[in-house]
Amino acid sequence: MMSDPISDFLSRIRNALMIRREKVELKSSKMLERIADILEKQGYVEGYTVEKVGPSSMMQMRLKYDEKGLPVIEGLRRISKPGLRVYTDAKSHTQIRGGMGISIVSTSRGMMTGTEAKQERIGGEVICHVW
User: Fold this and answer.
1) Whole-angstrom distance between the N-terminal and C-terminal Cα of the chain?
2) What is the pLDDT of residues 16-53, one digit of tens each?
3) What number of other Cβ atoms are within 10 A of residue 58's Cβ?
4) N or C: which end of the chain has fewer CB within 10 A?
5) Has this prediction a pTM greater than 0.90?
6) Cα radius of gyration rounded to whole Å, the chain
7) Domain-by-domain residue ranges, the chain?
């Protein structure tokens, strides 16, 4: 049993990027699919597919690289952890890397970027930062 599936998700992506993998296979859940959807919409990954394998489902994510072969995602950092939850209010959403990155926030209206949460004037749990 995995105690923190989001950290595992981010670590698998980070490891795949370090060895320049084209695709990475991940366990899937509704929350992880929403994070993958945000990464796709923000242009950090090319896309993902979800396949049902027995009682669970697996996600296959296509990673994105620039014309020089460098990964589009330079870094991923888990912010709110099971042992230390980090919350922010509507006014305190900060810019990541001077506006070059995003924060992913879990709100009462679902998962969204920190910028979207700030526009909607809603706070929530800061899941991770991506740059």
Assistant:
1) 29
2) 999 999 999 999 999 999 999 999 999 999 999 999 98
3) 14
4) N
5) yes
6) 15
7) 5-130
